[in-house]
Amino acid sequence: MNIAIIGAGALGSVIGFHLAAVSNVTLIDPWAEHVHAINDGGLRCLIDHEERIVTLSATTDPSGVKPVEVALITVKAAQTAWAAEVAAHVLTPDGVAYTLQNGLGNAEILSVRLGKQHVGQAVTTLGATLLGPGYVRLAGRGPTTFGATPVLHLAYAIADKFRASGLPAAVSTDLIGLVWGKLIVNVGINALTAILRVPNGALATTPAARSLVRKVVEEAVAVAQAAGVTLSLTDPVAETLAVAQATAVNYSSMLQDVLRGAPTEIDTINGAIVREGGRLGVPTPCNAMLCELVAALEETAPLRVQA
20, 120, 213, 229: which could form a disulfide with 224 (CB 3.0–4.6 Å)? Predict the structure, then answer.
């Protein structure tokens, strides 16, 4: 199977590192320094304190990529429109682009460009941290679940490739509960770690942080219930804290964005809860405050005082 991973950040690179052992994989990303490092010296991945290296192809220019049956979309939400254009160029006529992105709304953006028949939803709980150009860390080996639509045999084929590479994976006919379950976990972890400047595990071990996690997660659960969503989480607060503990050393994607002064995905994570809450008449003051704080962090990045 030929696979393109569109977005070679932390998550895309960790997935590419593993799949390269069982498939023909091409990483596509606009970060030239990262791409050059991978092509020059391979992709390095830190797994359980052991550094490993694989050789695979990476490029900033999708025009030279051979057609692929599957494209995995792992960019940040702000790059989804770009990823859709890349996917349109590299997919075979019967190919599918699976979004593994955070938040809500990415599949809809992809569908506008590609058509619903070429867009699949996937949910992953893999943890990954970008350590530098050509260098990533696997921070949590959580499962990835692919939606059975729009092409069942491709969903099973890519799930098989994940499992063959050592990454747990499955196929589901109903991802709505999983999508919202991941959203709620991200609601509880991403913005708080970005604001507090702490790895995920600190949220599970600090009483004040645990209290904040509870408040924002409970708001998100109330919104999901009002929307008629049957969640995949039995105890959302406890399971969010468990994910934080299981990925204790990981820097959340939003923390990584804030540390380098890049735009975050706050609008598609906590912002999605605020918008849905407004539509459904469910108050979300804690999530609204987190959205404002992260927006302020982004806007004041050039003025930040260094320790």
Answer: 229
Q: Tell me, what DSSP letter sits at residue 234? A: S
Which of 76, 116, 182, 215 is flagged as catalytic? 182
- Across the beta sheet with 68-73, what order do the strands follow? 57-59, 24-28, 2-6, 68-73, 91-99, 119-124, 144-147, 169-172
For the entire predicted model, the pTM comes to 0.91
Task: Note whether 204 and 60 are same-domain residues.
Answer: no
pLDDT greater than 80 at residue 179: yes
| Residue 179 · residue 147 · CB < 8 Å | no
pLDDT at 307 exceeding the cut of 80: no
Residue 307 lies in a domain: no
In-domain check, residue 28? yes
Q: What is the CATH number of the domain that holds 233?
A: 1.10.1040.10
Is 161 one of the annotated active-site residues of the chain?
Answer: no
Please give the pLDDT value at position 196: 97
Does pLDDT of 2 surpass 90?
yes
Write the pLDDT tens digit of every residue in 97-126. 999 999 999 999 999 999 999 999 999 989
Please report whether residue 270 resides in a domain.
yes
135 & 265 share domain: no
Peptide bond preceding 150: is omega within 30 degrees of 0, i.e. cis?
yes
